[in-house]
Amino acid sequence: MKAKTHLDYKTFLDTFWTVPTASDDPLLRRNPPPNHYTHRAFRQTVAKASERDRYTPGEYMRWLVTKLKLCPKHSLSLDTSPLSGKPEWGHMEPINDPRPAWARPQVLFLFVKDSQSPGPSELYRHRDVLAKAQRQFNVQQLTAVFVVVVGHDFVQPMRVDRAGAVLAWPENYVRDPAVLPHLFWRLSVLTETQLGLDPMAAPVLPGDPDYELMQSLAERRDDTDFPWEDGAVVPPAAAVGDEPAKPRNWRHERSWFKTLLDPTEDTEDFKHDRSLWRLSVPNDEDPDEPRKFLVGSPLAYRSSKTWPIDERNTRVYVAYDLVGLKFVCLKDSWREVDAEGFELEREGEVLKKLNDAGVPYVPTLVCEGDLPGQDTRTPEFWSEWDGFPDKEEPTKLRHYRMVTEEICITLTDVKDSRQLVSIMHDCITAHAAAAEHCGLLHGDISYNNILICPTVDATTNTVKWRGMLMDWEFPRLAPSHKDSGTPRPHGRRSWKYTSLAYMHASDSVLTVCDELESFFYVLLYTAALHLPSNLPTPDAPKGFLEAFFSTDLSKDSPCGWSVSQLKQLALRQARILCAPNKDELRFFLPKPHSERLDTAFNALLQEYLVWCHAAYVRSDAGRKPRRNLPRTYRSPAVEGRDLDELARKMEGYDALKALFADALEAWPATQVEKVVKSEPGEVELAMEAFWKEVAHMGGVGEGTEVAGVAHVEEEHGRRRKLPTKSREDCGQDEREENPKAKAKGGRGTKRSYDTDVAPAVEEGLVRGPTRASRRIRGEPAPVPEELPAKRRRH
Length: 794
Fold this sequence. Notes:
Layout: E1 3-7, H1 9-16, H2 26-30, H3 36-46, H4 49-54, H5 57-68, E2 74-78, E3 88-94, E4 108-111, H6 120-124, H7 127-139, E5 145-150, E6 154-161, E7 164-168, E8 171-172, H8 179-189, E9 201-203, H9 209-217, H10 251-261, E10 277-281, E11 291-295, E12 315-321, E13 326-336, E14 338-339, E15 342-343, H11 347-356, E16 365-375, H12 378-381, E17 397-404, H13 417-438, E18 440-441, E19 450-457, E20 462-469, E21 476-477, H14 500-504, H15 512-530, H16 540-548, H17 565-573, E22 577-578, E23 583-584, H18 599-617, H19 620-623, H20 643-648, H21 654-666, H22 686-696, H23 705-721, H24 724-731, H25 739-743, H26 774-777
Parallel strand pairs: 1-7, 4-5
Antiparallel strand pairs: 2-3, 3-4, 5-6, 6-7, 6-8, 9-10, 10-11, 11-12, 12-13, 13-17, 14-15, 16-17, 18-21, 19-20, 22-23
Region (Disordered): 711-794
Organism: Ganoderma sinense ZZ0214-1
Protein name: Fungal-type protein kinase domain-containing protein
């Protein structure tokens, strides 16, 4: 919401706060406009400076409104004390309206002490104004928020929507005594829709039958609801008499629904508001009758204290379907209508294509649609010549709602590495099916868009967690599509999970390889955040992830974002380094074996990284030398392997799906080293192939860690015996020689295997290691300060 524009004061009122003009209109007969007697009384009252000096700006305006009865049947209430040091806010509210504040329209007032209005550009950049508007967008169902700025002698209304703000030029109410009485009169006769309330939403209040229904739905029903834990036994459904069994829900859905009816006191933006709504969503089956859903507070939303403000105002609800009689997921957002000349499909339209094509592990669409007449209006009045020096053209947004059947849980509930790999395998399968059957790539693979969906395994009657690939709002055309060569708009995406080649490329054509690399980053991010590893302290995972996935604005990058040095090193040398022991990142088993290496997961992650490495160094971006990168050796897992062949594995889905499937089939239940051999003459088993790959990589674990380290030490010992030039060529064949050292006539700084090779990204945070840890070398480990199991992040 950065865009802003302005209108003449009278034009603003006539555009947004239109009132009837006919003298015989019933509304005007009940609430006649102020006359010259009111204007004269206002002039005389304002002329008394003694009264003005006794109050703060907000208290003085409240005194004026009450004394002169400027807003019939309404009062001006102050929200904050002027002694708090915060901006003085107030709002208009009806005197005899029993509804809570969240259920009725509110016009906000900001009182300032200046005798001159702050410039529109300066005012709109005020974070408090944006945060106040964002909070109203979160708590209420609104199309716009109106804010009236009142100073020593001026008044300035503004309208804020998700695309920006339209501000009126300030008007002096001391010089013209008709300004303020007429403004308050207009506010008293406007409809709720004119004041910004969404007509497709209705508050649910005590006494409403739906209010009692929502309270009843919040009660626990463990005897009929499905347990959500992976592996839990599902109780059989029971029918009452001749009636069929009612639709069953998941326990976590009902629990969340109850919590969101009465959020805790520490919930941002909902400390004092317990909003309940009946939301309408367009329905293709009956266009004249929208489908209705009951919701409480949103399950997911962007807090008003988070910067920058979310212009899409995406909110996700646990909703109850009054037609299907079950809990569903309702997404409310303001979507972009077009971008860079391309008309954007609604997310529901994309999901319908995927559902009709039988693509697995994607949400199941219930209904969706744009809300009629609810577009942002700021673009209508925007002009690049209106005098603002920091103009930014507003984006046209449209109010949109979508309902899907599944209510998923986040990756924070992942219990072990095998569970994580299984979930990622499902999402890769979904991505492959979408590309094959619909010609679409997801376009925004990220941690928040891969969720866990509890399902019922009919063969065992137990709960089975499956992956779910969410948020198909900005899909791209797959390479197989006839228009795949046309660059698509960048859209919105999580840049920290984006492939390096895509970020460094001069065009914006997305490929399958780019998407598969994004899956790797999500796998790494989730594992480092939630699985035991050799990151030494509880805060280390967060610090490592901030350094590895950090992105900053950059004018040198085609996409506008820079890539961290750690991520570039990981792809160039096929190893991930962590601090402070200068070790390669390794993961351990959960309790009670948290000191033992997770052999299967480490092997899978390393092989996946090798494929990403090969694809990158063979790409146009990877062939370009990168300055200011440490000179390091590639991982032994790459030595002697055909990079072209490895890179081709990332051009399609079959190789990666097979890698994950073989790993899951071979995954040891007790995580001990297993020898799997086929009988003579038989086809090699998938498990045997997987463990051979582990051995080829110098895999670590029971019975293999010493052999793996021996391979590493042997490789680096071989390099030490080589001439300097050969040693540099062996380890740095795709990097540019140090230009500073070359200018001095030297051969560059020597790098031994046991020296630091990467400067700290942030002091004391991450340093690039190359030497193996004591555990991997087979040496006894020092006694840690805390058990590794406590390093797990939740």
